[in-house]
User: Which sequence fits this backbone?
């Protein structure tokens, strides 16, 4: 793995960062064979020595410090309907530190955790529960000896409790990604860390990222007409462990009763509110008026009501051309060149535009911008600046304006000194002389 980027505009991505040893129990056997050159006989094999050791990793709980950031933020409200919720971990190996499933050759292994997104109503009847680890064994989880009797932490406490969530099979299949989708919901990211918040655990600038497989729901429509004291509905992000659920998340998993409960180990959770219309409402708004009456799509051309206007525009020399807007979006706008022998008066006689955007015109009949005046304004400015005489005159005019301002300020200072009872004439002359010399120098440059 290469080092983190050295430039702020660089970003490095990789599918996965799998540790050499995932969590589990390992057996190491050492054998030694001696060959004695000074004595006859074959090699001597010494008795092998076998050692067993375990590699630990988070399983039933997750230290909050392992999470670098979450998005959308906990308790926030915003237009998140097109944003994929995600969580960023400080450790680049965390999603792959436990082995989950067999995986496929030549492909990154799936992560052992998943980020689920629930609507508030979906969890209304299924609250989070706190259970001891011994209770998990009765729910089908296999525990190691050290997990049944965990060692005490530096504070002397035994972390033998975890948060769980029990949901029915039908809801589980609705919100949980399939096994072959998991590898696409996790990756590692290398970023330039010099401008990041100075927090411990950033390390070499590599982070692991876990994405949800659902988009938030915009609740603005559901909240229209609601009472002010009624809180908006929320989306709940739940980070779960997938251990023991490999048979449940296969695409061809056997059918189970809809009400059969699935027990999930919860590693982290937060909630937020997504405001604004969702994608379905946005598309529907293109087709229906606010009162529900159908209308023609704006994106479909030509419009019956605009057919005549389009024909007239083309007849008078207008052409629909691609238009890149200042904000980065793209559209199609009308353009008419200056050499078309058809009169096209301005909206207002001798109208002055301060920039090209101010000269844009919107045609309500065809629902397109007219960039003809904006293009003419920009072309005129470029031609004027290209002429040396005009550019020099403009420069002198700007400097002359500055000189006039300095002269006015000097005159005010001069008059202010004479308004005093005992004016200092020598000081007044020096001030006026210095300011005028600056104004003359600027004027003559």
Assistant:
């Amino acid at each position: 793995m290469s080092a983190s980027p050295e430039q702020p505009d660089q970003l490095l991505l990789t599918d996965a960062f799998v540790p050499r040893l995932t969590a589990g129990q390992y057996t190491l056997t050492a054998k030694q064979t001696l060959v004695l050159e000074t004595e006859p006989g074959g090699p001597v094999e010494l008795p092998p020595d076998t050692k067993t050791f375990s590699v630990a990793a988070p399983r039933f709980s997750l230290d909050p410090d392992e999470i670098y950031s979450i998005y959308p933020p906990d308790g926030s409200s915003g237009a998140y309907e097109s944003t994929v919720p995600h969580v960023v971990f400080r450790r680049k190996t965390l999603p792959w530190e436990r082995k989950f499933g067999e995986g496929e050759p030549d492909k990154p292994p799936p992560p052992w955790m998943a980020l689920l997104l629930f609507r508030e109503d979906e969890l209304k009847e299924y609250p989070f529960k706190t259970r001891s680890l011994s209770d998990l064994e009765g729910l089908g989880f296999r525990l190691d000896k050290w997990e049944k009797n965990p060692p005490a932490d530096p504070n002397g406490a035994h972390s033998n409790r975890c948060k769980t969530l029990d949901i029915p099979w039908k809801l589980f299949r609705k919100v949980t990604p399939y096994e072959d989708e998991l590898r696409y919901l996790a990756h590692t990211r290398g970023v330039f860390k010099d401008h990041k918040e100075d927090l411990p655990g950033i390390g070499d600038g590599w982070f692991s990222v876990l994405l949800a497989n659902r988009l938030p729901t915009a609740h603005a429509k559901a909240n229209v007409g609601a009472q002010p004291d009624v809180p908006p509905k929320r989306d709940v992000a739940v980070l779960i462990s997938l251990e023991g659920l490999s048979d449940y998340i296969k695409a061809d998993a056997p059918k189970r009763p809809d009400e059969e409960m699935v027990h999930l180990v919860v590693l982290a959770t937060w909630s937020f509110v997504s405001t604004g219309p969702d994608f379905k409402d946005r598309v529907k708004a293109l087709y229906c008026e606010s009162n529900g009456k159908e209308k023609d799509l704006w994106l479909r051309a030509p419009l019956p009501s605009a057919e005549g206007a389009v024909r007239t525009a083309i007849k008078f020399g207008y052409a629909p051309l691609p238009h890149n807007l200042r904000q980065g979006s793209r559209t199609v706008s009308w353009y008419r060149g200056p050499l078309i022998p058809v009169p096209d008066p301005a909206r207002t006689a001798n109208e002055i535009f301060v920039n090209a955007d101010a000269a844009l015109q919107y045609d309500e009949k065809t629902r397109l911008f007219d960039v003809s005046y904006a293009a003419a304004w920009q072309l005129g400015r470029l031609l004027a600046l290209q002429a040396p005489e005009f550019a020099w005159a403009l420069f002198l005019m700007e400097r002359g304006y500055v000189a006039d301002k300095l002269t006015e300020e000097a005159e005010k200072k001069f008059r202010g000194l004479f308004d005093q009872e005992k004016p200092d004439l020598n000081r007044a002359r020096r001030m006026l002389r210095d300011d005028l010399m600056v104004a003359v120098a600027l004027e003559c440059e």
